[in-house]
Amino acid sequence: MKFTPYLNFNGTCAEAFRFYAELLGGEIVESTTFGETPAAAHVPADFQDRVMHAVLAVGDQTIFGSDAPSANYAKPQGAYVALQVDSPAEAERIYQALAEGGTVEMPLAETFWAARFGMLVDRYGTPWMINCPPQQ
């Protein structure tokens, strides 16, 4: 069994996944727009280029994503993408990039459980927790 986060966006899935791929050293291994599906004739013109399903692979991990129809889109609430990194420098790099244009909820700092921990919502509306365990 494997858990895979599935992120919904309000028309920014392709842009967000390109950003995440570059930032995290991943690769978009699948991306299909609504206009590329058998149902394309039934999709409004302004939705043809939006992402129906995308897969971002980072190592052996994946994140799925799509653009939700505007009437169905709601900002994520009550869940975060938790990212565990190996070094404080990597935590700083990723946190700063995700925070740019976003909202900091908890600044990245040393805590009693982590060398670095911080929480934010990025410019695409995705909530993140960045965690770097104590260094040995």
UniProtKB/TrEMBL annotation:
- Keyword Transferase carried by entry: no
Q: Which UniProt keywords apply?
A: Dioxygenase, Oxidoreductase
One function term, GO molecular function aspect:
dioxygenase activity
| Entries under InterPro entries matching the protein | Glyas_Bleomycin-R_OHBP_Dase (IPR029068), Glyas_Fos-R_dOase_dom (IPR004360), PhnB-like (IPR028973)
Q: Which residues form the Glyoxalase/fosfomycin resistance/dioxygenase domain?
A: 11-129
Q: Report any Pfam family annotated for this entry.
A: Glyoxalase
Highest taxon of the source? Bacteria
The protein in question is named Glyoxalase/bleomycin resistance protein/dioxygenase
